[in-house]
Design a protein that fits this description.
CATH topology of the largest domain: hpI Integrase, Chain A
Strand content: under 5%
Shape: globular
Oligomer: single chain
Order of helices and strands: HHHHHHEEEHHHHHHHH
Helix content: 40-55%
CATH architecture of the largest domain: Orthogonal Bundle
CATH superfamily of the largest domain: Intergrase catalytic core
Strand order of the largest sheet: 1-2-3
Distance between the termini: 75 Å
Number of helices: 14
Number of domains: 2
Length: 337
């Protein structure tokens, strides 16, 4: 799968775990992966539901089985696909959670303030560059850990990112992110790189070229970056910063196609979910373009709009007692019409 479909190592590990789970289930039914039938697959899904496995996780496991048995069928190791006519579990669409712009700004300002500390300047510069890059480019955490110094094109204001399926895309960066990265490369990373060269067990050449290094001079892991972002702000996570990047762009008028390219989504339906989060933008567009999207007139405004002008047309001016034609008083309970 990694060679033919270009899947990431973590995806391959997840699929291998799904196959092992299904194989263990088949052992209790005195069957194997090659002898499984449709009833075994349906029983496996029912087993997952009975153990409160999330519907999205169950759908992923079924997708793994479909790909596996499709390959066995093409390789002529089996004569029938047991996953045929098996419906995928219905999954609820969960809206991604994002941070408010004020929360992101406060988090980035704290990270910038920490860089003034002389003893921990290298670490603070690195952490600030990570936060700025996650928010400015909407990167996944695995894409961030895979960045090398050769992927940067600071003169052009962009970075080369390798996403799912080893698909490459160009991500533009803003002035704040570029400034943070340049400062880290100039003052922070050389200090961390010197630590790695002084160690007896030096990192491999491809690891030494990684952009973000730990205090021991080794490449940062996904788990480490997750803890870094969580400690930087309440309710923050690497993927929530990615959601915040997309949501704030849509709120400021970005079109979905541009956001799709920036995030590296294969299908624009994945990007459309951010329109449900940008409610402020949606309300503004509705008020601007819908014929009845403006503010509702107040009763006094309605009277002035319907009543003749007593100065220009004193004859047609309504008498004060006839104002009830335009302002109907609220009916009291029990008062017949």
């Amino acid at each position: 799968m990694r060679v033919e479909k270009g899947l990431r190592p973590l995806t391959c590990e997840a699929y291998a775990g799904d196959l092992n789970t299904f194989a263990e289930f088949l052992e209790g039914r005195h069957a194997t992966l090659l002898t499984a039938v449709q009833q075994d697959v349906a029983g496996f899904l029912e087993h997952l539901r009975a153990h409160s496995v999330d519907s999205r996780s169950a759908a992923r496991k079924l997708s793994c089985l479909r790909g596996f048995y499709k390959w066995l069928l093409l390789d002529r190791r089996i004569h029938h696909d047991p996953t045929i006519n098996i419906e995928s579990p219905k999954a609820w669409k969960v809206l991604p959670k994002s941070l408010a712009e004020a929360e992101v700004s406060e988090m980035l300002e704290r990270a910038a303030l920490a860089t003034t500390h002389p003893k921990a300047r290298a670490i603070a510069l690195r952490d600030r560059a990570i936060l700025e890059l996650l928010y400015a480019g909407g990167l996944r955490v695995s894409e961030l850990t895979g960045l090398s110094t050769g992927d940067l094109m600071l003169d052009a204001g962009r970075v080369l990112v390798r996403g799912k399926g080893d698909k490459e895309r160009i991500v533009p960066l803003g002035r704040s992110a570029l400034q943070a990265i340049e400062e880290y490369l100039r003052e922070g990373r050389p200090h961390l790189a010197r630590i790695s060269t002084a160690r007896k067990n030096r990192p491999a050449p491809h690891d030494a070229a990684r952009m973000f290094l730990s205090l021991r001079g080794m490449p940062l892991t996904r788990q480490w970056i997750w803890h870094l972002v969580k400690a930087a702000g309440k309710g923050a996570s690497p993927h929530r910063l990615r959601h915040s990047c997309a949501t704030h762009m849509v709120e400021h008028g970005a079109d979905l196609r541009s956001v799709q390219i920036l995030l590296g989504h294969a299908d624009i339906s994945t990007t459309q979910v951010y329109t449900h989060l940008a409610l402020g933008r949606l309300k503004a567009v509705h008020r601007q373009h819908h014929p009845r999207g403006g503010a509702k007139p107040q009763p006094e405004e309605l009277v002035s709009a319907l009543s003749p002008d007593p100065v220009s047309d004193p004859v047609a001016a309504p008498k004060p007692l006839r104002a009830s034609l335009y302002l109907v008083p609220s009916r009291k309970p029990g008062n017949p019409a």
